[in-house]
Amino acid sequence: MPPVSHAPSPQRITLAALVSLLVVMLISWSAPESVAYGWGTPVVVGAGGLIWNRLASVRQLARSLDTAMALLILAPAIAARQQATLLAEWQLSVYPAHQMLEGVLAYCAQATADTAPLLAAGTVGYLVLGGRAASPGLGVLLAAAAASAGCSGALFAAREAAASGEYTQVATLVRGVPWTGFLVIPGAMLGVAFQGGRSRWSVGRALWLVLAGAAGVYTGNTPLAQLLETVVVPSTDVLVPEGPIGPTTTLAAVTGEPAVIDRVFRERGHYYQAVPVWPCVDGDRGWAHTLRRSATLALPASATVGQLDAAADRFMVWTTHRLALVGRTEPAPKGPVAALLAWPTAALLLDRPPQDATALRVGAEGIHLIGRARPAGRGCALVPDDDATVDAVWHAVRALTAPAGPCEGIALVPAVHRPAVRASRDALLTLGCPAHATTPGAR
């Protein structure tokens, strides 16, 4: 009868720890986020190897040592995965609501990527310790490392697609991500098949393999579902404008009634002032990217510009200078990030535009440039026609602020100033803010 367990020799244990240390040293250069837990991996490999060597002579335990060791090897990666997920949850809690799609993809990819180098270091050490005799555990570790790397690669690609406005590609890339960790199951099965009849099986060994497999699924999988639980989606029953999928602003939507806006903003702790103020807002990020207090607004597609203006006035009274108009997508997209794409928002900035902003008129006939030439800046000022609808404004803003669009940000010109801007774009030289000049080198 073949031996019930392969006991690694002291020389093999030393070699396994040194090889793991070498991999960790490579991690410190290529993936510095993983170093804190990476230095523990050679210790886990060496200590686990000594335990394996000492207990191999105990018949009741010997048959379970290789699969139990696989679970121990996963410990640093599990800890790194959990810490990265908790850190991502905290970071997303203070992340700009209008950039939540890219934030979720980036932090989720990083949380998954942090575990892949640790799994690689542990897998190499485990391979040196056990060789082919430990192939069931090796199958778990290899599959977990492959799943983690594949997961993070798909998520990083999805983030790049989101940054370039390819939102359909985003939905496609992440569709299978939540299931990637389950590659550990066929990995364990292949490991068992590869080992063949070289070792006896016991209930304990099978149990340890199941536990290692479950830990491998957790480690190799993405925390996407866990992170999405912290995100608020502005779903609404209002018949908002309908259009292509796109990123949403993750705040609960308010309707346009002034009393509703007052109540919700009071509950949220927004600062109240007696009259609406159209201020100048500046920051190190540039006018379009300066952080503002935001809120989402759900208005019917058929609502008039007058209704939009009334809501915008209440927003400014409550010092809320980023108004995200909610739309919807039909049919709703599928997949784990569908909620972040099914309610696309169009952002209107409720503060003064730069003096070099492009003045645009929007109405039933589309978008028209005010003035003969487009200024050099990428800020825009929107002047809706009196008969324009919320649907026309929503579609215009989404088209203008798309990644390939001409506007980095769009200011909604208040109704009282619209006649002057319609008459001449030069009115913005008086109404606009010089500190916000977006022409390169003008800041």
List the defining traits of the structure above.
single chain; 443 residues; 2 domains; four-stranded mixed sheet; 18 helices; disordered C terminus
How would you characterize the overall build of this protein?
The chain has 443 residues and is an alpha/beta fold. Helix content is 50%, strand content 9%. It contains 18 helices and eight strands. The strands form two sheets. Strands 1-2-3-4 form a four-stranded mixed sheet. Strands 6-5-7-8 form a four-stranded mixed sheet. 50% of the residues are buried. Mean pLDDT is 86; it is low at 437-443. Helix 16 (390-400) links the parallel strand 7 and strand 8 (409-412). The chain has two domains: 10-228, no CATH class; 253-436, no CATH class.
Total domain units: 2
Number of helices: 18
N- to C-terminal separation?
Answer: 80 Å
Supply Rg.
29 Å
Strand content: 5-15%
- The ordered H/E elements are HHHHHHHHHHHHHEHEHEEEEEHEHH
| Structure classification | alpha/beta
Strand order of the largest sheet: 1-2-3-4
List how many beta strands DSSP finds: 8
Mean pLDDT: 86
Taking pLDDT < 50 over at least 5 consecutive residues as the criterion, the unreliable ranges are 437-443
Give the biggest beta sheet. Answer: 4 strands, mixed
Helix amount, in percent?
40-55%
What would a concise description of this structure say?
With 443 residues, the chain is an alpha/beta fold. It has 18 helices and 8 strands. The protein has helices at 10-30, 35-38, 40-55, 59-62, 65-73, 75-93, 100-113, 115-130, 135-163, 167-174, 184-195, 203-220, 224-228, 258-268, 305-317, 390-400, 418-423, 428-431; strands at residues 253-255, 294-298, 322-326, 345-349, 358-363, 366-369, 379-384, 409-412.
